Amino acid sequence: MALNREYHSAVKSLLLQGATGSIGRSTLAVVREKSKRFRIAGIAAGSDLRGLLEIAAEFHVSSVALHDDAQAGELTAAAKQLGIDRVYVGPRALQEQVAAEYYDLLVNAVMGGAGLRTTMSALERGKSVALANKEALVAAGPLLMKTARAHGAAILPVDSEHSALYQCLLGERADSVRRLWLTSSGGPFWGMPWDSLDDVSVERALAHPTWKMGPKITIDSATLFNKGLEVIEAERLFGVDASRIRVLVHRQSVVHSMVEFVDGSFKAQLSVPDMRLPILFALTYPERATSDLVRTEFDRSFSLTFEPLTNELFPCLALAYAALAQGGTAPAALSAADEIAVPAFLRGEISFTAIARVIERVLARWTPRPLVDLETVEDADRMAREMATEEVQRVRSRASMKCC
Length: 404
Known about the structure:
Strand content: 5-15%
Structural class: alpha/beta
Low-confidence stretches: 1-9
Shape: globular
Largest sheet: 7 strands, parallel
Number of helices: 16
Number of strands: 12
Helix content: 40-55%
Mean pLDDT: 92
């Protein structure tokens, strides 16, 4: 009991990177409700200066970081007015903030490969990370997990699916697990043949049936690439072979994931879809905090349905399994290629189904290398982006020739 009293009396300092995005905003909502338990020590963003300053003023942060160095002067002047004297600006700003500032927990809600170095820096300091950055685990999961173990830090998943698995596995033996089941809403195009989606608009692809997210992750959900990343993440986090990680379509998004045990029984974590719940779990772990932010009303009737999903229905999911089987730097190449292909679709340069073709062609050209260090991962990321850019140009050229 003494341990519990000590835990409750301490205020946990958070460094929130990606503060202006959807996960960042949800984290701030949790902190507002639990203001006696958490303090936002520092915040960081990519280019949303106005959003960053609004958050800084509300939460009286000690430091701010912004990736966009074109706004350095404006940020420095505004921070001075707010009484903030520790300002980080430029491509290395987020990593410098992680390495220099005091905090108890890094909340990494940065999108893309930019979250890799910051996660590693925090773990090397022995700081636990509440991780919403999928790409870091996908590209360099074995390196990050090894570093976390070496420095006594924890990687606490913020994804609803991996948070569910984490909760279901607490107190269970590794050899008692038969399979992990990730659930998927199926996105806006579930039930439609893949070859019928070539001409879908950006607007239709962004119309996710369940979650409100940024455009990149929403498109990844529509192609099920996001679910492929989650398969790789689960393999990294829980040490379960990909052959024992399955995906089910669950349109209601109430069951967030399940663990199947060797005796045939299942454990699942359920709630209405709301990212504030896995965030709350990560921030308060190893305890559960009383909260009214998310309420699931079981005093009314509703149904839960599950449908099998085969990799062939969504090529991006199959590509993720293929990259994991290749190993080494292949998952990093997979992630980097998608980061080129999706923005190309959002800009109207390639079709929806061409996203998968670009990634497939990059993987077909790829020669995996062992994951030796972060430099290896970053080299792979750079090379894969160059390949993907070439493939986007090829797809555009062919489309132009067809039109003419």
